[in-house]
Amino acid sequence: MNKKMRNFEEKCGRAAELSHAVLREILKDNEETEYGKKNGFGRLQDLREYRRLPLTDYADYAESIERMKRGEKNVLTAYQIFPVDFRQQRRAEKCAVDDACAGTGLGYGL
Asked: Which pTM was predicted?
């Protein structure tokens, strides 16, 4: 078995562990945002605690999204979101649906 395949299989065997590490990183990055403070991101320790957050839908975020569009920072996320290149967004959505972008860095495999 070649090195790339061994690396891939090793990571597959640790998928849950790696996913939890990514979640912890995202929560840490966003704990000082308005949304992170409201939901106690700084106190969440694991996936079980994260799953206790209330379920939400678009209506819960619409006003915050508009504020972010106007340039407000640290509302929902600490990451820069706007301006969006909609051509790239459509390509990323296509990648998420049909895996057409394998190896391009545009797909989101989390």
From this structure: 0.64
Cα separation, 49 vs 43, in Å, equals 9
Q: CA–CA separation, 30 vs 38, rounded Å?
A: 11
- Residue 81 banded pLDDT, cuts 50, 70, 90: confident
Report DSSP state, residue 40: T
Q: Find the Cα–Cα–Cα–Cα dihedral 31, 85, 102, 9, rounded to 10°.
A: -10
**On the CB side of 102, how many CA atoms lie within 13 Å of its CA?**
3
Backbone angles phi, psi at 92, to 5 degrees: -65, -40
Closest CA to 30 of 21, 17, 40, 19: 40
| SS3 assignment, position 71 | coil
For 6, 18, 42, the CA distances from 23, given in Å and listed in that order, are 25, 9, 12
